[in-house]
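Why does this matter for the project? Reviewers at the last site visit asked to see concrete outputs rather than summary tables. In response, this paragraph embeds two records directly. Each consists of the residue sequence and, immediately after it, the corresponding structure tokens. Nothing has been edited or filtered.
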Amino acid sequence: MIKTNIFLLSPPQTGSVQMCDVVNEIELERERCENKTAGNVTSGCKGMWDIIACWPSAKVGEMVVIPCPNYFSYFSEHHSEGKHKTSMRNK
């Protein structure tokens, strides 16, 4: 079981940003993540892209805290809180 924070996103708050720019930035983040986590081998949780952010590998029971992705700034000024997950052994 993996616990995660869920953020509800509202439409972009900056008038000069196009939704396609945001989608392109998210896609670039996903590609970077997949390149960074490729070949990860761990006895806990493997590093992964979870559709919102890139998570590094973690040992069982380890809590990982990451900053919110940069593209969150398009949706909210309050994106600096970060996200966290705790790696749990599957039963």
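We now turn to the second protein, recorded in exactly the same manner.
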Amino acid sequence: STEELINEVYALRRQVVTLTEALRSQTALTTAANSHCTIRGRVNGELRTRLENSRKKTNRGGSTKVKGRFLTHPELMAAHKKEYEEHVTKKATEEKRIQKDHRSEEMEAHIRCDGVSKTFELPLSSYKRKDELCTIARALGLAEDGKMTVISLTASIRAHLTENELILQKDPCFSGLFSNKRR
């Protein structure tokens, strides 16, 4: 009967509440045990460090610093200075190259993503940056070379839009490229 089913649902609900409380209690106990173990591990590490430090021989004879000067021939100093400057220049150049590569990889990923999913709502004349034009070229399926200039990219895109005007004006992704007004 319905009353028995209702009573059974209530009994099951009480069991769920009881099990949930038991789970919370067990979770709290586990968290406390983990915290205790973490604290114990840190204390053990500190004690181990202290023990190792106490077993080391200490230098009680004073400083072992040598108080002296090195004399270097001027030609050797000049050679060292030149090598050091070359090293610094080479390192700076390498860092700039790595940074440039990283920026170009980010830009390429952005162009790949936008080339597939972006809707171009502004007219072509609104897009001035090279990465924007590369995105449009990629979306149109044009072979864009990273070495192309903004002017050559714009000309290539404009030529493609002119050749395929009827098809692309119907496509909602590219229809904005044909509008004359800037928004």
